[in-house]
Design brief:
The protein is α+β, with helices and mostly antiparallel strands. It is built from eight helices and 21 strands. The strands form five sheets. It has a six-stranded mixed sheet with strand order 6-7-8-3-9-10, sandwiched between helices. The chain has a five-stranded antiparallel sheet with strand order 16-20-17-18-19, with no helix packed on it. A four-stranded antiparallel sheet has the order 2-1-4-5, covered by helices on one side. Helix 2 packs parallel to helix 4. The structure holds adenosine-5'-triphosphate.
């Protein structure tokens, strides 16, 4: 296993900087998610670590070694992509053992290691089947077994679960995490799915237009976004424009909301939709300050519901357990409040 470190890496395609001075490290044995909008450089970063793409500038280290001059096959990396393309005419066992045969491992050794890898992904019973005799989730497991059978130092996964339907994807997320923990392999994966990244990762990195805008443990990044982009990209955020006035934040439309002590003007503020309470009862003098909005739409999604609100022309969102929401008349006035500590400060 190895730590992977990316230091000041730049990659240009013509005039486009697909990676712009990116620095991030992936400590030994962790599970790391790379997130960002389409075209932000996630796959380029992963392929740069793998060695399919050479950097224009900067250093990539695996373990203590700088690997820029080391070709893909010598980097000891296991990979699994969205289009994992198993060989259709080969059995599951032969698919998994392919990388070992290329490395001229003995037949007995190949059998032993393929057996172990298939047990790990719980496909020991299906080693003689052909890929078309497996479900989508099982094929994904074969691809994973194939990626880890060579005992790589690092596992790179590019959108590994995006072809699966929602419930299978959730099962596979749990499976992937179990397997990663069991073998303790440093794993870096690219995903579009923020929930997936938050669920699986020990650390996430968020790319935007080739730059690593923020990296850290998911909870830390979620609770302390360093810019408005990250606050809105990772989960949802209601952005509040205003100025600090004593223990309140005076919004630009005049309303005041309580904030934690010590907040400074010169920042933008935000509140997550799930932290807001909503009521139809007009607040009294003695209530904590509430801000008024108009309910535009209530979107039912099983256990949870999203209320889309209009507040002086801008949209505000509240997410709550459906059963905790009062009967809210669409188009009617509602009052919103939240605990002071749920006002997030975003440094400008
Ligand atoms: P997505 O989520 O859509 O897969 P991504 O974040 O993985 O996107 P990349 O595939 O890394 O993004 O691409 C980053 C940028 O580099 C994009 O603007 C893309 O068009 C460009 N790019 C990637 N590969 C090449 C290439 N071989 N030649 C030219 N431009 C490229």
């Amino acid at each position: 296993m190895a730590e992977v470190a990316v230091e000041n890496v730049t990659k240009r395609f013509g005039t486009l900087k697909a990676l712009d001075n990116v620095t991030i490290d992936f400590p030994d044995g962790g599970f790391f998610g790379l997130l960002g909008p389409s075209g932000s450089g996630k796959t380029t970063l992963l392929r740069t670590i793998a060695g399919f793409i050479f950097t224009d500038d900067g250093t990539i280290r695996i373990g203590s070694k700088s690997v820029e001059q080391i070709p893909v096959e010598k980097r000891e990396i296991g990979m699994m992509f969205q289009n994992y393309a198993l060989f259709p005419n080969m059995s599951v066992a032969d698919n998994v053992g392919f990388g070992l045969r290329v490395r001229k491992v003995s037949l007995a050794e190949e059998r032993r290691r393929v057996g172990e890898a298939l047990e790990l992904v719980q496909l020991g019973q299906h080693s003689n089947r052909k890929p078309h005799q497996l479900s989508g989730g099982q094929r994904q497991r074969v691809a994973l077994a194939r990626a880890i059978v060579t005992n790589p130092r690092v596992l790179l996964l590019d959108e590994p679960l995006s072809a699966l339907d929602k419930s299978l994807r959730v099962d596979m997320q749990i499976e992937l995490k179990r397997i990663q923990r069991e073998i303790g392999i440093t794993t870096i994966f690219v995903t579009h799915d923020q929930e997936e990244a938050l669920t699986l990762s020990d650390k996430i990195g968020i790319l935007r237009a080739g730059r690593m805008v923020q990296a850290g443990p998911p909870r830390e990044v979620y609770n302390n976004p360093t810019d408005v982009f990250t606050a809105s990209f990772l989960g949802e955020a209601n952005i509040l424009e205003g100025a600090v006035d004593g223990n309140s934040l005076r919004l630009t439309d005049g309303d005041a909301i309580p904030i934690p002590k010590g907040l400074k003007t010169g920042a933008t503020f935000a509140v997550r939709p799930e932290n807001i309470s909503i009521t139809t009862e007009e607040p009294t003098e003695r209530d904590t300050p509430k801000i008024q909005a108009r309910l535009k739409q209530r979107v039912f999604a099983g256990a949870m519901a999203t209320c889309i609100l209009d507040r002086n022309g801008s949209t505000f969102k509240v997410i709550s357990r459906d059963r905790d929401l009062p009967q809210l008349p669409e188009g009617g006035p509602v009052w919103l409040s939240w605990e002071p500590e749920h006002t997030i400060t975003i440094p400008n």
